[in-house]
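Input record, target 12 of the design panel.
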């Protein structure tokens, strides 16, 4: 499924890639804040993910950081917000991308 170019990935596909990159514990915490239909759609996309390329993960994470920055006062405090929402190990990986 993820052999698609970035421009062809749906928002659900991008959410699946982001959650898969977070790891089981952090992804579970995010999924707890979603409704049953959202969990079903994203979970199905996660189960179907194959051949996710590093560049795709980096682009999805970069897009996520841009969106979060826009929603947290033009980026003010975005790093702190993201850091609080994921494990220290995951933060190091995200920080390398951004």
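The sequence produced for target 12 reads:
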């Amino acid at each position: 499924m993820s052999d698609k170019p970035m421009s062809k990935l749906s928002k659900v596909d991008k959410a699946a890639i982001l959650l898969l990159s977070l790891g089981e514990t952090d992804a579970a915490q995010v999924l707890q804040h979603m409704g049953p239909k959202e969990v079903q759609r994203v979970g199905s996309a996660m189960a179907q993910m194959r051949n996710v390329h590093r560049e795709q993960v980096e682009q999805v994470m970069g897009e996520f950081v841009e969106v979060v920055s826009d929603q947290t006062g033009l980026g003010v405090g975005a790093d702190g917000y993201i850091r609080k929402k994921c494990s220290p190990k995951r933060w190091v990986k995200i920080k390398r991308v951004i």
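The mean pLDDT is 80.
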